[in-house]
Specification:
The protein has twelve helices and three strands; from the N terminus they run αααααααβββααααα. With about 290 residues, the chain is mainly alpha-helical. It has a domain of about 180 residues. The N and C termini lie far apart (about 140 Å).
Length: about 290
C-alpha cells in the first residue's frame, strides 16, 4: 500500500498536468495587423540606386564632327555622312593618280632604256620602300609592281566601307579617334583599347588627328598590305583590259578585311546596291578618270 505522502505527491503531479496540458497545444497568437504593417513598410522601401559616374571619353583630335547619331532621317544621315567623307577620299585618289602619272612616265623611259634623273631615282626609291617593293629588283620590275600597288580605290567602295565599319559615323572609334575603317595598331598608346579585347591581346584601334590621315592610312593598307594582294590583282586586271573599276567586283578582294570573310563582302555588296542613289555620281567620275 502506498503511503499517504506518496499519494499526495501523485495527486499534485496530476493537478499540474491537468492545469498545463491545455496550453501546450496552443499556437502563439500573431498580431496580424502589426505583421501587415511591417510587410507594407518593407514593400515601400525602394532599392538604393548605385550612382555610377559616367566618364566621358575625350576626342583624340580637334575635328568638329557632325552628330550623326542625332540625325533621325535615314536619307539625311546617309547624305551627310557621305558628304563628310567624300572630300578626303577625292584628295587621296587624286594624289594617287598624280603618282601613277609619274610612274607611267618613268616606265616609258626605262622601257626605252632612257636613264632616270638623280631626283627621279630618289623618288622611285622612296616609293619602293613605302610600298614594300623588292629593293633588289630591276627598275623595270619595281615600276610594274608599283603600278599594281599605287592606284585608286573606287569612291563608292571607300564610302560604303566607312559607313559599315563606323556604323554611319556613330561608333566610339570614329567619334573619338576618327577611325572610320576599323584600322588596328600594335604599339601601346597608339589608339583606343577595344572594350571586348581578349585577355593577352595587345592590339588597339588606331586614332588619327585628321580625316585625311585616316583615309590615307586606309588607302595605304589596301595598296601595300600582303592581305590585299588579290584586291590589287583584280584592279590591275581591270586596268589592263580597259574595264571600269567596278566596286562590286573589287569588293570580292576584301575577304581578309574582316573576320566575317564572305559575309562581310556580301554586306558591302548589298550596301553598294542599296545606296546607289548617293554613289552613282562618284562611280561615274572615277571611271572617266584618265590613268595615263
Amino acid at each position: 500500500m502506498k503511503s499517504a505522502t506518496l499519494i499526495k505527491i501523485e495527486l499534485l503531479l496530476l493537478l499540474v498536468v491537468f492545469l498545463v496540458a491545455p496550453f501546450t497545444f496552443l499556437k502563439p497568437k500573431v498580431n496580424e495587423q502589426a505583421l501587415e504593417d511591417s510587410i507594407i513598410k518593407i514593400a515601400d522601401k525602394k532599392p538604393q540606386k548605385v550612382m555610377v559616374k559616367k566618364v566621358l571619353e575625350k576626342p583624340l583630335h580637334d575635328v568638329i564632327l557632325p552628330d550623326f547619331a542625332a540625325i533621325r532621317d535615314v536619307k539625311d544621315k546617309k547624305k551627310q555622312f557621305f558628304d563628310f567623307m567624300r572630300p578626303a577620299v577625292v584628295r587621296q585618289n587624286e594624289a594617287l593618280l598624280a603618282i601613277r602619272a609619274k610612274l607611267n612616265l618613268w616606265l616609258e623611259h626605262v622601257s626605252l632604256e632612257l636613264p632616270l634623273s638623280s631626283q627621279e631615282n630618289q623618288a622611285l626609291a622612296v616609293l619602293v620602300k613605302r610600298y614594300r617593293v623588292n629593293n633588289d629588283a630591276s627598275p623595270l620590275s619595281q615600276l610594274n609592281e608599283l603600278l599594281m600597288r599605287v592606284d585608286v580605290v573606287p569612291m563608292p567602295l571607300v564610302l560604303v566601307q566607312a559607313a559599315n565599319e563606323s556604323a554611319w559615323g556613330t561608333s566610339r572609334f570614329s567619334r573619338i579617334g576618327l577611325n572610320f575603317f576599323g584600322i588596328w595598331c600594335f604599339r601601346q598608346g597608339c589608339g583606343m583599347v577595344p572594350g571586348g579585347r581578349d585577355t593577352g591581346a595587345k592590339h588597339e584601334v588606331a586614332a588619327f588627328k585628321s580625316l585625311d590621315a585616316a583615309v590615307a592610312h586606309y588607302f595605304y593598307n589596301i595598296n601595300s598590305h600582303n592581305a590585299y594582294r588579290v584586291f590589287r590583282t583584280i584592279r590591275f586586271e581591270l586596268r589592263s583590259q580597259d574595264q571600269p573599276l567596278n566596286p562590286e567586283i573589287l569588293a570580292t578582294g576584301l575577304l581578309p578585311y574582316s573576320e566575317r570573310g564572305a559575309d562581310y563582302v556580301i554586306d558591302i555588296t548589298k550596301m553598294l546596291r542599296q545606296n546607289q542613289q548617293y554613289l552613282i555620281e562618284d562611280n561615274t567620275q572615277l571611271n572617266t578618270a584618265i590613268d595615263h
